[in-house]
């Protein structure tokens, strides 16, 4: 399970616990097993309920490994990999599981090892390897008749696909889990995966009563982790609908029970949502308390969504209390966590696309080799057939080979086009946030070496939320595109122009003084104000507010330039909008949570 399946994957040990509860059998009421097959079955059954007894059984079998049959050897190796992983030795666990997944003779055992590997690789941020293993899992799935193993594989596939934004396939796997649970399992786990995928895909407009029934089933069957994860999603849904008090009620009622599960990833998700909810209710004390807990409980050295949310709330609290120095410190941590989190989200999506393209290219190469072999076979048969007929056949096959070559070229161009699209904003065609940061840092590094000044202009469209609410998102999108077109005509080829999100844009002006930057910003402001927002509504005009920061005052660090320019932009908003303000290094930046108020 992931902390928020467009965020970070969950702690592997807990996932192994909840998955393996579905794979274990009832306690053995007989005596101590003696045959290797019976010992392996017993160990597989008790590995969750009696980990020490499980370890003793494995230790005894390891001494007899040389006398085991191949099937027994691979089953022992799988349990060893599971044991290493449970103890936190992920390298040894991955090695053992890879051996089983690649070499075991039993397809069900290979399937189980592959499913466990997918989760382990996801936890380790080895997303491309995880998607390669997912493809292997999907190829084996039609042959798997073992209900419990298939149930495990469907769950891992649903979670990994959802984490990469492939929500339709993730939801399909979750529904299959709900429709065909194996003996001992219920709709609980599949419903939890489905609920999270729908919420992350922004398809959850109302709360289906089916999810509440599934939550009752989870509680009744003791699937506490999945029950509490569903509560986290339901609370987040209520918060998104403006029902913060309802979110607090749901989370506080189950938080104490969650602490006993020893599942820190889910606990930090609870705390992050509680921090946001209390802040929305104006309870700054509890907002700070749970934000600090979310930050402290997050996985060390990883930028998870609870961590960035916690820093964002802490910044809001300190800013509202007037603690400028503390607010600035938390804002810097928030921006660092936000960037790391967005990079991880992009890495998952890009890994899926790369593996998908590689599979298509490999299939095309296999087809090409098959065609070449067919050509060789037909060439040898020409001695026994009419020459003209044989030549015609070869021409047809050569044409097919040419078509396959063209397909390979097309796939390569598609890969290059995908890499280009990954750097561009889908609506406006300018740099997206990640690419703008990359390009701007490169230009600033050159400016620092050559001692040439640079300036950053931040601007966003005034009252843009009102435009969306009044005329609809289609008109809002047209307003954004018209505004970008106006700015493009006024910018130079060397300027870096990007969309940071929503209606907020940034421009880096290389080799530019603050006086020149102010003039350029004023030109952009007048151009936007003088242009009708859309062709369909020529009477609708939109203005923009601007904030400027220069390297002469702030240095060549992009983060500092953005912080100062953002503060100047907020002062422009407070001054009445449709104006330009120069940044000051003593400014405190505006809140990332007040974007709607600024619009």
What is the chain-wise order of helices and strands? HHHHHHHHHHHHHHHHHHHEHHEEHEHHEH
- Annotation field: number of helices: 25
- Low-pLDDT runs of 5+ residues are 1-30, 587-599
State which percent range the strand residues make up: 5-15%
CATH class of the domain at 433-598: Alpha Beta
Strand order of the largest sheet: 2-3-1-4-5
**Which descriptor suits the 3D outline?**
globular
Radius of gyration: 29 Å
Quote the average pLDDT: 83
Major beta sheet summary: 5 strands, mixed
Name the helicity range: 55-70%
Please state the second-level CATH architecture of the domain at 433-598. Answer: 2-Layer Sandwich
- According to DSSP, the number of beta strands is 5
First-to-last CA distance = 36 Å
Structural class call reads: mainly alpha
How is the CATH topology of the domain at 433-598 named?
Answer: Alpha-Beta Plaits
CATH superfamily (homologous) name of the domain at 433-598: Reverse transcriptase/Diguanylate cyclase domain
Transmembrane segments: 392-411
EC number: 2.7.7.65
InterPro entries: Diguanylate_Cyclase, GGDEF_dom, Nucleotide_cyclase, Rev_trsase/Diguanyl_cyclase, TPR-like_helical_dom_sf
Pfam family, one: GGDEF
Give an overview in words.
Helix 10 (188-200) packs across helix 11 and helix 17 packs antiparallel against helix 18 (387-421). Strands 2-3-1-4-5 form a five-stranded mixed beta sheet, with helices on both faces. The protein is 68% helix and 5% strand. With 599 residues, the protein is mainly alpha-helical. It contains 25 helices and five strands. The relative contact order is 0.06. A hairpin with a 2-residue loop joins strand 2 and strand 3 (504-510). It has helices at 12-20, 36-46, 51-62, 70-86, 90-103, 107-123, 127-140, 147-163, 167-179, 188-200, 209-221, 224-240, 244-259, 264-280, 284-297, 305-321, 324-381, 387-421, 433-450, 464-471, 473-490, 514-529, 551-554, 558-574, 595-598, and strands at residues 454-461, 496-501, 504-510, 544-550, 580-582. Among the domains are: 343-421; 433-598, 2-Layer Sandwich (Alpha-Beta Plaits), CATH 3.30.70.270. Mean pLDDT is 83; it is low at 1-30 and 587-599.
